[in-house]
Amino acid sequence: MMWRLLGCTFCLFVSLQPGFWRGWAAAEELEGEVKIEVLFKPLHCSPKSKKGDLMNIHYDGFLAKDGSQFYCSRTDKDGHPQWVVLGIGRIIKGLDMGMVDMCPGERRKITVPPALAFGEQGKEPVPPNATVIFEVEAFSVSRGPRSMEAFGNMDVDNDKSLSKDEVKEYLKVEYKREGKPREESFFDKVVEDIFRKNDNDRNGQISVKEYNIYRHDEL
User: Can you tell me where the transmembrane regions are (predicted)?
Assistant: First the structure.
């Protein structure tokens, strides 16, 4: 699709058009609720995301007040899409809420009030009490790593822990199933990031407890 080719160049162009944002921002700041606008949805919209699912996304962040851009995932971390587990607090609450029921290929504009974004303190470069707008594209939606089913699918040798090879093979299958195969180096970087965040004892394995399955049964 043409908009993908434009990438962040388009986002930066839009951010320079203050009239495009100003009226919308004022209304949202008063309402104090997350607003979702679907920009594109595939005819076959499945599976739909829910709490605990693993999502692969690109997203751009803008200040609602003037449309200035404060984040673009296409220029961060070598431009790779970001992995997020929905509903566990790894991203701001309003974005968590705004990505529920989203399917691969779908694009959304999500407006988040300060209380569900960066709050009274803000977070550089986002100022205090700022309403923010995210444009999100979902590439894949799969059962999250904190679901027992996904853990079992990855744990090929049934030793109740996950090796890097097991996680990598699982991701390869999921990407292939979604029709989005990637280079080997992509999966290497993703796996390293997953282990950096979850392998708490640094033994090269991710245990059931490190994935918090027993502490978060609702996932």
Answer: none
